[in-house]
Amino acid sequence: MNATQELMRRHTSVRKFLPDAISDEQLQHWIQAGQQASTSSFIQATSVIRVRNPTTRCQLAELAGQQEYVASAPLLLVFCADLLRASTLAEQQLSQPLPQGYIEHLLIATVDTALFAQNVMLAAESEQYGGVFIGGIRNAPQQVAELLALPSLVYPVFAMCLGKPDQAPSLRPRLPTDLVLMEERYQPLQPEDPRLHQYDAEVRQYYRERSGGKKDMSWSEQMAQLLGKEARPHMLAFLHNQGFALR
Description:
Blueprint lengths: L2 H7 L14 H12 L10 E5 L3 H10 L5 H4 L2 E8 L1 H11 L8 H23 L4 E5 L6 H7 L6 E10 L13 H4 L13 H18 L7 H9 L6 H8 L6
Antiparallel strand pairs: 1-2, 2-4, 3-4
């Protein structure tokens, strides 16, 4: 493996940071790396909001589920799927309103934003910084949108905390590659597959070690817990309100 692959394989979520500030120049470089990510049809449907105001950050931390590092991390970015910028220019060019609300446009903007953000994280990690994605801001997307003055055709996909790590989390084991990489056609997972049983054992051991024995859970058990309950059902109405996923 080359150095880039090694860096990618070492990724962990960092939630505890040293107070070292991140310069505007560093941030510019990371955002420029994000901009070089692939973008569907060159729409470039991502906007990033840097939040510095302590009051706003405390409110976001509360909305995200009392994640205190949202308030305290040296850098907080909110990544937004943004169709407003391109739509405004297109309407100006065509001199007429655009058809809006297509689910495909939502997918394009969301995927663009995720690719952009992953590049930002990788750029930061290449300079020995660390971070964590904050999907919890979708717990209360309307309040987040109001806090950040997000207009129609813009929605907050996730936030990201970045800074110099003040912890060294162990690597969380991923699924065996041969359960993810398939040949020619989709191959459904068989619950009795010994590779899955081995992976469940690895994940259970990881949680036991990380929590000092307080968490004892396999990956299969975690998926049952996660997928067996409602998952932010308010998001559909919020997206409709923002002009997304109408057709």
